[in-house]
Amino acid sequence: MIVIAESGSTKCDWSILDDQHQVVLTAKTPGFNPYFHDEQFISTEMSRSSELLQIQNEVDKVYFYGAGCSSETLNSVVFGALRVFFSQAEISVDHDLVAAAYSLYRGEPVIGCIIGTGSNSCFFDGSKVHEMVPALGFILGDEASGSYFGKRVLADYIYKRLPGEMQRDFEERFRVDWSEVVQKVYQNVHANVYLASFMRFIVDHKYNDYVQEMVKEGIARFIDIHVANYSNYHKYEVGFVGTVAFIFQDILREELLKRDCKPGLIIKHPADQLVKYHKEHKLMSQPIGK
To answer: What's 81's domain CATH number?
Structure first.
């Protein structure tokens, strides 16, 4: 069996393929990010998945793509947990940007972007993924992401700068106070996920002028920083994966066209397209039935 996993900071989608390269099982677990999670956490969460436990001793190969998997040191954290859990398998760990590039590839070079809990971009020439703009994380970067917009709304609520109906709705839903915010933002390794959790509230007010302007500004900033820095970026499709990109794809396309960019695929969950890429480009050399 072959396992293909795509993980953000919030959730991880697992696709399990049989010897005929057909998906026979899927699973979901929390997301694993080696910036925030150690081997023990990853192992524990995987062991809570009945689907993964069901097939763990039958797996020959694991392709894992995850947020934060951007260096040998960080990758080794995830690798260690996977090696213990799938003890009979060959393990490959790579960045979630690579998964985004593979998912968005349609036979031509593409600028692949992630806008979910966090945000990032790369250029995929069809054989190699090039990352030109560093990802600064939710404190300094993550433009247009769930954590980016969540931070803005949370701050404006505390400053009492949200529109009246949004201020009241936020108060009734969350009942947050300053001490709670300090604990969850400044003393919590999952602060980015906490901030991104306010996206549900933002989406419920999607058509409020405040939200529309905030999202336009955030997406414009993302494009100016993470897309326009690539040479000849006007020549290539610009594709996106991630829930935030998918939800606000109308604004996203509008801002891309304003800058003479070519909108490409916008995918909420890249798992299916990632499997398709592997079947067409990576598994062709592996004989079916072995």
So the answer is: 3.30.420.40
